[in-house]
Amino acid sequence: MAVSFFKPIADASQFPKPRVPATPKFKFSALKLAKCVQGEVNDTLFTRNGRGAIGIAGTALKNTDSNVILIPAYHCPALVEPFIWLGYEIRFYPVNEDLSVDISMLERALTDDVSHCVVVRYFGFGQNNNEVIEFLHARPVKVIEDCAHSLFRFTDHFENSVNSVPQVDASICSINKILPTIDGGALYLKAPYHAQLNHISWVEEFKACAFIAGIPQALDKIKTWLKGKPETKAASMAESVENEDAHLRYFQPVDLTSASYRHTKFIFCHSDLDTIKAKRRANFAYLTQHINNPAVGQPLFSQLTDDDVPYVIPFLLTDDKHFSTLRKQGIQILRWEEVAISDCSVSQEYRSLLIQIPCHQQLTQHQLDSLVSTFNQLRA
Ligand SMILES: Cc1ncc(COP(=O)(O)O)c(C=O)c1O
């Protein structure tokens, strides 16, 4: 059956520039000279984005005859669209309220014709994914692990020390969700596969480096100040070009053959992942302890396991009106509004009620406190 996505509910242009941004900004001081990622990254493909990595995984693992894939019903379209483009038959399996998977429901969805299954590590939390992957190992399906939000689990694939994690056929991550890069996806494939990825020219690479260092933005400000002209907005290097395939909103076929910026790989390898991990966990603890307004909502998880490193704090609102109130107050919360229509009532409800609160490594104490007071002052 063809997949239909819900339309977006809110439009980012309705909201002011955030004072608490969803993602961190680039800082030279956050990089280390020595390589921080352990193990061999050369077997990892650095793609333009996570959806490109998913598309390459889908290409590498495609069967010559039938391709029926199970995808969790709670998702963003960027996860589903590459499989639509590749001609997979897509079926959705339900998620529980805590975003774990009910294995008996998954077993029911796993009919004989299913050839692939996607497992998502939502927002950096493990849920019962290891158990789900173990369950799938005993079945004739190829497992694609979506670590778009779980860079720290993704790195387990090439960190020699870790071998207690269950193996999958492919694993992807989205680098710019956690690190301050313009672009970046990464792909691990269990079986060798050659994907030809094209790098952009060195001139474009240099422009992008200048962009993340804030040089064109600073020059723009100086020009405006000198000429008294309105500021010309620096074009976002991350802005996507018009999609070649109009029915897909996020995935572009060119993503399948595009390498990330070269400096994205450098930032990936030289970021102090231990410090980032500790900060994100500490911010999670601070925010979940201090946000206390049950009339407005509750965090989906109140505790972290030793392996959880939050990308954001999933928070369940009592009423979706709070989303726009929070955005209007400059808190850049996100929400997956465009899930596909399915039988999963949790996913359909979470499309408006489950918000993502930033907890990234660069939030200052002032921003954390302002986040807390904004939430605590909301009225039901
Ligand atoms: C769970 C999940 N998978 C995959 C993707 C795609 O990642 P990217 O935006 O890097 O293409 C996203 C992005 O929103 C995501 O949230």
TrEMBL record:
The lineage of its organism: Bacteria, Pseudomonadati, Pseudomonadota, Gammaproteobacteria, Alteromonadales. Signal peptide: none annotated. It holds the Pfam family DegT_DnrJ_EryC1. Keywords: Pyridoxal phosphate. Belongs to the DegT/DnrJ/EryC1 family. This is DegT/DnrJ/EryC1/StrS aminotransferase family protein. InterPro entries: DegT/StrS_aminotransferase, PyrdxlP-dep_Trfase, PyrdxlP-dep_Trfase_major.
